[in-house]
Amino acid sequence: MTVNETGAKTRAPIAGLAPQGRTASPVATETVIELKGVGVHYGRTHAVRDVSLPVARNQITAMIGPSGCGKSTVLRSINRMNDLIPGAKVTGEITFHGKDIYGSGVDPIAVRRHIGMVFQKANPFPKSIFDNVAYGLRINGMKDNLADRVEQALRGAALWDEVKDNLKKSALALSGGQQQRLCIARAIAVQPEVLLMDEPCSALDPIATARIEELMNELVKDYTIVIVTHNMQQAARVSDATAFYSADVDEAGERFGFLVEFDETQRLFSNPADPRTEDYITGRFG
């Protein structure tokens, strides 16, 4: 422990885990999404409890923590993907530009139109490269200038130059990294404001991972990004703010996830406020 100029005790920076990439802007930015006391239930199981945090515009917010701590569950709640799971229920409040996305009369499909998602495993449709990107455009009635929209999305996902001469070929013939970038193109084609990414690099090799990270740093200029990752170095490299989750067992013996700490990435990794965060990022548990 060290003592700062005000006399308050602080933790020494953690060697080897200081962020090497992005640093959050000191200028306050608009909050696009806010979670307030969010909990997620699967039937009688209270899987995630009391999560509160803001998501700032045009920043990358990372969620890290051990397996089973609820970070992916929280991510899926942000665009109502948990609605598709029988027995799932979200409590508390999640607002998008101040409006409760679980409020009466809110269409979950409209929520997902504005808050897109890229999953852990690339999931291209068994269609052509062109039709994969065009799919969301067609079902959302965005059929004007379709070819231009597809090209724009593929360029946005840094894939156009690699596939422009093979748009009629099956997307399943692409490499794993290309398939993931195709899924990103499919997500951004409908021009969402927020992009959720659930472990987008977990199945990729280091070279493909680096391409996705470079892409995220480009996409954040136009989109607000929330990423779940098990890779702490990745969170340190790409994110502006980081939320650390952990898990515990209640009196009934049920495991549940909860938010331990949320802060600017640089501060959370170099000087965490909670000892549980420090234990995790230094490898003492998790």
From TrEMBL:
CC per GO annotation: membrane
Gene3D superfamilies: P-loop containing nucleotide triphosphate hydrolases
InterPro entries attached to this UniProt entry: AAA+_ATPase, ABC_transporter-like_ATP-bd, ABC_transporter-like_CS, P-loop_NTPase, PstB-like
Taxonomic superkingdom: Bacteria
Keywords of the record: ATP-binding, Hydrolase, Nucleotide-binding, Translocase, Transport
Keyword Hydrolase on entry: yes
Residues covered by region (Disordered): 1-21
Residue ranges constituting the ABC transporter domain according to the UniProt record: 33-272
MF annotations from Gene Ontology: ATP binding; ATP hydrolysis activity; phosphate transmembrane transporter activity
GO biological process: phosphate ion transmembrane transport
Pfam families attached to this UniProt entry: ABC_tran
EC code(s) of this entry: 3.6.3.27
Annotated PANTHER family: ABC TRANSPORTER I FAMILY MEMBER 17 (PTHR43423)
Entries under NCBIfam families matching the protein: 3a0107s01c2
Protein name: Phosphate ABC transporter ATP-binding protein
Species name: Glycomyces terrestris
Gene: pstB
